[in-house]
Design goal:
Mean pLDDT of chain A: 93
Number of strands of chain A: 9
Helix content of chain A: 40-55%
Protein name (chains A, B, C): Delta(3),Delta(2)-enoyl-CoA isomerase
Number of helices of chain A: 9
Strand content of chain A: 5-15%
Largest sheet of chain A: 6 strands, mixed
Oligomer: homotrimer
Main location (chains A, B, C): other
Structural class of chain A: alpha/beta
Shape of chain A: globular
Low-confidence stretches of chain A: 1-9
Largest interface: A-B, 34 and 31 residues
Order of helices and strands of chain A: HEEHEHEEHEEHEHEHHH
Keywords (chains A, B, C): Isomerase, Peroxisome
Subcellular location (chains A, B, C): Peroxisome
Radius of gyration of chain A: 18 Å
Catalytic activity (chains A, B, C): (3E)-nonenoyl-CoA = (2E)-nonenoyl-CoA
Chain lengths: ~280, ~280, ~280
Amino acid sequence: SEDQKVAQSSSATLEGLKPVQGLEVTKEGKIFKITLNRPQKFNAITPDMYNGIKDALIASNADKTTSVTVLSANGAYFSAGNDLTNFKKAASGDPKIIKEMAEDAKILLKNFVDSFVTHEKPLIGLIQGPAVGISVTVLGMFDYILASDKATFHTPFAPLGQSPEGASSYTFPLIMGPLRASELLLVCKKITAAKAHEYGLVNEVVADSEFSATAAKIVEGFSTLPPESLRVNKTLLRHLHRENLLKTNEHECEVLAQRWQSKECHQAIAAFLTRSKK
Amino acid sequence: SEDQKVAQSSSATLEGLKPVQGLEVTKEGKIFKITLNRPQKFNAITPDMYNGIKDALIASNADKTTSVTVLSANGAYFSAGNDLTNFKKAASGDPKIIKEMAEDAKILLKNFVDSFVTHEKPLIGLIQGPAVGISVTVLGMFDYILASDKATFHTPFAPLGQSPEGASSYTFPLIMGPLRASELLLVCKKITAAKAHEYGLVNEVVADSEFSATAAKIVEGFSTLPPESLRVNKTLLRHLHRENLLKTNEHECEVLAQRWQSKECHQAIAAFLTRSKK
Amino acid sequence: SEDQKVAQSSSATLEGLKPVQGLEVTKEGKIFKITLNRPQKFNAITPDMYNGIKDALIASNADKTTSVTVLSANGAYFSAGNDLTNFKKAASGDPKIIKEMAEDAKILLKNFVDSFVTHEKPLIGLIQGPAVGISVTVLGMFDYILASDKATFHTPFAPLGQSPEGASSYTFPLIMGPLRASELLLVCKKITAAKAHEYGLVNEVVADSEFSATAAKIVEGFSTLPPESLRVNKTLLRHLHRENLLKTNEHECEVLAQRWQSKECHQAIAAFLTRSKK
């Protein structure tokens, strides 16, 4: 199948970047492409993938031959978010091990999110299917999101005993106002692509059958704009929010590291992993 | 009638809270409920009710058995806002009395609005009918608003010689952008529930016939989420805005205390009270 | 034709204000009116017009007989934005001349935008046709925008090697969220009046045939509100954003002055002026 073929090539990367299972990093003309490629696991993000995406965003900043950066995904899901098997070690119940794990995960997450804050090119997201957790929250730092009508957006933090990240506690109220931000981040309603469009989290929704063609056309169009202007103007638009985003990310990571050490979180994740095994 | 029956029980309250005419405070399972219950006066808010709502919000913060707080109202109106008969004393025209009244009202209002800023649980508003003035402006600090299609939203500050409060000069531009905020708060257009939904001031609108059932289902659903996560996540979402909200409230109260001592305000309120008597 | 008749009277102004070609400044009852009147050049804004609009906004602040300020335009276009023939001098290619020109234009622009930030009356925009560049970006500082369905909104900064101004890097993310702000200001999509309405940049859209009548009715209605309240409440709503707007304007002007001295900008403008001549 198409998915399997793609999965086999999952470590395609650029010179100077470490190959990462589940991630493709390529260049096509003026387009720097980062592709989630772990479709058999719904593109859940492993520690290596967090670092791989971060490194790719930094590499794109340094690359003068491309003018825009694109994040997309292979398979039916955009991304199931944080791979909760990352938390398996916590099952030991040993508070010292759990604390260590929380501290490591905090640093991993902080650097990952910072690489979106400090990105210098227009960042285009192509959301072809369901997006969950961190794969939704970082969208607030993108510049253009195209979604298929098969995409959904869900940030189930409270049910999993966790707290919002991806600088979403800053970006979501700015994008959609605090009431809608609470609807998503606090009481955790799942929304459709149409609703995400209405809420300003998505710029454009198309039928799934038209998704690939529309995506190619949009990305191509944006990539032909003068590259220096794109970079200067992206920096200008980020200027006002940069410090707030970095601070928010730091605060969110602190809160989340505490949550990861809480009983509510352990119980919720244990229940989730049990359900998943069945 | 239903309204009268409800009105007779209007001082239902919780142990430790002072009973207040026109206000019910109750607990149902994991839900802390505050209900405006002065339907014969369109739930206009008296000084005792301001303090009663504030005390209830503080009591809900301290209550560990409930996970969400709900504000709703009995009768056809959600609330006519500030009870303008509060200003009757000002009719004397004595600047000293008016100044005293303005200073008292300023403190009353400031503490009332602060109790929304510092609330620690998800705050759900059930707006079954027209909402006016302060009962609209504080909605910007809620986490989820369900409105009946019979609800309307009106903040007629300028026609009454007054100025926006409820931290709305901060929350409304964040929710709907400055142009729409000016449409409501500056040139004072009344909007429907559908428009309020479009503007992000309301999360969901349902037909009046489905209002009670939908409200019960929503509140019940949210109340079953892990309580500690709800509290941590509400605090996280409020974190970025807390200082701004407190400062905005203070500034708005200062400006409003000045307005209450202005000729424009006295003339407008005198005209309003005369119209109401007819 | 109507346009020509209007154009002949293009220097109508008020006592104390210097007449400016392409600009009318008048008072009608409680309405202070500023009208772009250079329809044969699509109301492109000349240096004199920048200063004339700034002076008119300041004069309206000082005028106690009017309660609202209206900006409208004659002809088919609202405004083509900055008159790019302003840049003809740059064609010399002499870096010293270009730098001087950039510094002068920076000061002109800064003072122009500041006069919107510090305006003290409700500012109503009547957008009867296409709006481009600076005539779009300043709309974020208005209080009510009525648009004809013939209006469009376009800010093609990157294609012209330029960067956003008009404090739009602050107001646009607040109005429509950062993703939609990037759609307009970074990748430069042109939008219809309906889309601008959806994005909160326009309060109301009407069919072109109803535009004049609706505009007259709206402006008349707002102008009858108590003038002191309007001024106090406008100041209150601006209070939270004033410093940010001034700082943003300063930063945007600095960045733009650099862009004006860049090769990308010179090539883009040279190409534009060549196309226009054909």
